[in-house]
Design goal:
Blueprint (H helix, E strand, L loop, with lengths): L4 E10 L7 H4 L1 E11 L4 E5 L6 H8 L7 E6 L2 E2 L5 H8 L2 E4 L3 H4 L6 H11 L4 H14 L16 H13 L5 E5 L7 H18 L2 E6 L2 H4 L5 E6 L2 E7 H6 L4 H7 L7 H6 L30 H5 L15 E2 L7
The structure holds iron/sulfur cluster and magnesium ion.
Length: about 325
């Protein structure tokens, strides 16, 4: 099927710290990121904090301008479109943020918040009224909530408001940047379940950003794992979870709790050494090598490309010299 969103060699280089040699060379927060999002699917984008996943998410909808590469929406290159040219597309891709309270105007009622994208489109008052009523119901809020303000809601409810706002214009794509990370664990599954149901009902595609693989397991159709600004593995969900090919994916998965308690007690847990290195000072070769249990000499000097490796199919790509078979 035609890709909804095509991302090719996307990059973001921030200026380096002032007064250092890095100032001019810059810090590569995102480097060579390539993937497609298909209509109606969920691509889980996973990695530790600082790996560039939020920066990537923001570039996809041009909240940030990439310094390299290309983003196309339904075949149209939007990488260098002006904000004016983007305006008609704005209703077709939306964003959900990590902190629902920070992303909702505290002085606006729920009615005002959810209707804002519709007003921006110039919809009639009557149409907006009926749409907003549908939307609150769709996300599991009650009509009487419309007159209230964000601070009168719990985190989970506030995120429902953020979701209703994102879906108001019936977008084809929603970038959800850690939409449940700030919520109680007991609420997380409810919100993920809601997003899944809305996808079935509305056919919207998601890029669902998360810092662990457990959160995106149920909702994703495909998963991309990022490390230090690059995708190290991407593939169909079942393949990636059942047979991770990259040592980093394997380590992340070993931290995901298993439903079977016996399997949970006996399984091997891979503990990575140290913290992720700073993108301002990336290790040579494969940037994962200082933490990789499988690293060999070549890993210190040669960066592996994201390719279809021995263990991978056309639908799975891995950036490792020694992928799991
Ligand atoms: Fe580990 Fe080498 Fe593969 Fe990098 S290329 S993930 S260091 S085995
Ligand atoms: Mg982030």
């Amino acid at each position: 099927p035609e890709a909804l969103l095509s991302v090719r060699d996307l990059g973001m280089t921030f200026p380096g710290p002032r007064g250092t040699l890095r100032r001019k060379a810059g810090v590569r927060a995102v480097d060579g990121v390539t993937f497609d999002v298909r209509p109606g699917e969920t691509l889980g984008l996973v990695g530790e904090s600082g790996c560039g996943k939020s920066t990537t998410g923001r570039m996809l909808v041009r909240l940030l301008d990439p310094t390299a590469g290309q983003v196309s929406f339904r075949g149209k290159d939007i990488t260098r479109s002006s904000q004016h040219e983007l305006r008609p597309l704005r209703s077709r891709f939306q964003m959900i943020f990590q902190d629902p309270f920070a992303s909702l105007n505290p002085r606006q009622t729920v009615q005002q918040i959810i209707s804002a994208p519709l007003r921006a489109q110039g919809e009639s008052k009557a149409k907006i009224q009926s749409e907003v009523r549908d939307l609150v119901q769709l996300v599991g809020l009650a009509p009487e909530h419309l007159e209230r303000y964000p601070h009168q809601f719990s985190g989970g409810q506030a995120q429902r408001i953020g979701i209703a706002r994102a879906l108001a214009t019936r977008p084809e794509l929603v970038i959800a940047d850690e939409p449940v990370s700030a919520l109680d664990v007991s609420i997380q599954a409810q919100i993920v379940g809601l997003m899944e149901r809305l996808q079935r009902e509305l056919g919207v595609a998601y890029v669902f950003i998360a810092h662990d693989l457990a959160v995106v397991k149920h909702i994703s159709h495909r998963v991309a794992v990022m490390y230090l600004g690059r995708i190290v593995e991407i593939g169909e969900k079942q393949q990636v979870y059942d047979n991770p090919a990259h040592p980093y994916t394997k380590a992340l998965l070993s931290a995901v709790p298993l439903p079977d308690p016996i399997a949970e007690r006996t399984r091997e847990r891979i503990v990575l050494l140290g913290d992720p290195p700073s993108p301002a000072n990336p290790p040579s070769g494969c940037t994962f090598h200082p933490r990789c249990p499988k690293a060999q000499d070549i890993c210190k000097t040669e960066a592996p490309l994201l390719t279809i490796g021995r263990s991978a199919t056309a639908d799975r790509q891995v950036a490792c010299h020694f992928p799991e078979a």
